[in-house]
């Protein structure tokens, strides 16, 4: 069986990637057809690799599938000698493992995993649409995986039939398309280099990842042959070198291919010279290359590429269309109707209407066929179509003569066979597995470095080096260590697997689904029925918990079927069965326990955008569902399955389509029991909570203080249930809160303010630009920094006092005043607790202190100190104010000591808890700065030693954390609450007709159009817009319905987080507002007045989470409530 696999130098691994619908699967069809797996008639329309029903129904690819193809490679110089005797003996068999990947963003992880295991990629670009959103992404990704690309410009036929361009116009367009692809690649390389330089600067070491070859590989040059012009639908394609060779071979141009290819894609034409008599027969074709200049004389002169590359194709299209129209079949391939769709000639002959070689129009075809065919010379004469008889034969044999498209397909795929040029180019341009492992992709195929982990274990080192060397050289020998990398798992039906000696899994007998791993063998030979070590992506070197798998079975990938093989040598792809129970999404398998996992590309993974809660309708099915979910998350790397504390099972997917497909798969494939009924919740949208500034007064610390002393009505959220039921809320006002440690043994005072994302970045060490300094100044004023202090020093003070920053834009700092001890107070207490007034009256209590000198309440021990501390904390702001610097007594010094040693450490936990769930709807808090302003500790004298104090009652870290959490939450509630929304970036194409319905739909969903530009040469607009995630559901079907298909389905990816600038608790109060917005609507929320988007979201989230939504709502008929449906 091993003869199936050729040695690595005869093997190539490539993946096809592109934007959605640019023709990847159609291209794959053509390549598969050349192997005789599908018939010629089906190539281009069958979409063989879209093997699932759903993929065929929707017409898009959802899962990457692989197939191994055999090809006979003919060296390109075989045809360059003019002697026609060069035989096919110089052609050698090669194997190309081809992976077809999906184009839709929702399935982008499938692309990532395909790229991971290949060495080359076929980058397909639609000649009409050009580079699209997804193309840019795959280019970046393919580059990160260090692949060598070949550009395939597909659908070139559309330039002729749809856009009706002349060959010259088409040539110019193709040239500018290549330029635009090159520009995009160059821009990408530049930005990657800059980033790498930056990384190097930060890490202070050289990584040397981008080599010179990189920019070489990523420059597409028609002359070099890494650009193929193709029409996958009609099965033709050619590259400039292949055209040059055939023009020379067929004696159309008397210039050696090596020279000719340099001119062929430039502004040149060939000037025939009048033959000079004698040897006119053989050398009639002399002439010279001329630079094309527009003069009167040669204004009709086409550039070489247009004349020899495109013109014959254009003529074939036109000729066949004319013939079809003539004989009564009608033609509809030209969009401008130049060939009438109805018959011009009334077919009187009875019987079948068919196109014959003699039908008028076909003479034009025949003539064109004689020029510029790129049929390999080794091809048999049966494929020859340059004579009338053969033309007729081909049409009869392929049974294509009754349809215009079929005739075109059968002729064109012989005239310039697509599969040939693509497979030859793959062999010539993409690296072999050996070369890839050695030079091209050393980083992508690198196994983890063992250095730090096994420095002192020399015998491991030796084994490890042996494995490394074997991988680097793609060693296929029998004694080389066997190592393979499983880049993804996939599900297959048992019926697809051709395995005579199948091992039946005791547990899985009912299941018709088999999970297979797609693996690339890196060194040695994998053998069916042997056992191997399986290492997950986070495997540590020398980890004793290594999994020894049960005997694996290996399969050859044949698209929709899998054929058992005995062994697979290095350099090939295969499917592996019996790995599913290891439950890793990627794995390294090896016969030695030291074959370390390959380095992953974790940063490539997209953020899942759509989450739902899945539960089985029949509780008895829960176990089945759980097993199904495990399989689903294994087989699809992009699906995240999590369980919440409440027992919900959350499935997160990349997009709506991905979700729909995953749920279908879950029901039909992964759940062993057929017909499991599932209940899927509404999509779960993530929000964030944050706060806004009160008003300009707050931006000035003095103003803030004076405002605090005034009696102002509390914010609405503090008066309406359920928000006012937050613990500790009575001690908070205007973003300041004093939180009592349980048992009243201490209290922390804090203030929360909005934190601009730019300042957050600066705190983490990012750059400070002008906008950022403005923001810092603004924050500085609000915190009471002197007016003349500059941004830099404010930032420094903040950065010095930062206790912690989290991942969602929040930070906690201890004010300088607190750090210095000015606002730390020890309260000597006889009752073992600090004094707690009933309600915090910030301004009032400070004044009353001055008025009656605290005598009125002097009966409570420690009250005076408490009031003093309060004033200190309140008035000092962030900085310590020298003038007001309080004398620190020994009690305070003891408190400060206790703060530093016992309390500070547990703050981070409290801060994180508070940030994980905000007070409004328990969503994560974003962009908030917490400032610890002051601290009080109830102290007792320690009798054992003089002047020594200890905490009145024991203080634990948990108590501190809880107090901080409560404090932050109630301080946040006492500030204007805002929601933070996730925004998506969406790109789509629309015709002008579609705009009319597109804009209103986007507007209604609060979308913002960022850019709309014409796509060159088409009447399509490329539109990019931002859209709040919460409003994105069902957008594609709505657009489709309203615009009657004039607008394409949008591509959506995560863009950024942004504050929803709407006060969720706002109601019209003034007369003017009431006039503008109306009275409180009776249909609205009774507790909060008007319909309000932000509030609407908040209520939805609270409802979903089972939080109290509206405690004023009374249930009238409680016994009628159903609890089944949430
Ligand atoms: N005119 C023309 N149409 C083509 C050509 N190649 C593909 N198409 C059409 O383009 C459509 C999409 O083709 P697919 O091969 O499914 O595209 P894909 O890139 O695999 O799409 P996804 O897998 O969904 O990303 C089909 O309707 C094809 O018939 C071509 O060369 N010329
Ligand atoms: Mg496809």
UniProtKB/TrEMBL annotation:
The keyword Signal does not apply. Residues 72-91 are annotated as: Disordered. InterPro entries: EFG_III/V, EFG_V-like, P-loop_NTPase, Ribosomal_Su5_D2-typ_SF, Ribsml_uS5_D2-typ_fold_subgr, Small_GTP-bd, T_Tr_GTP-bd_dom, Transl_B-barrel_sf. The keyword Ligase does not apply. PROSITE patterns: G_TR_2 (PS51722). SMART domains: EFG_C. It comes from the Eukaryota. Residues 80-91 have a biased composition (Low complexity). Residues 9-258 form the Tr-type G domain. GO terms for molecular function: GTP binding; GTPase activity; ribosome binding. Keywords: GTP-binding, Hydrolase, Nucleotide-binding. GO terms for cellular component: chloroplast; cytosol; ribonucleoprotein complex. GO terms for biological process: cytosolic ribosome assembly. It is found in: Plastid, Chloroplast. This is p-loop containing nucleoside triphosphate hydrolase protein.
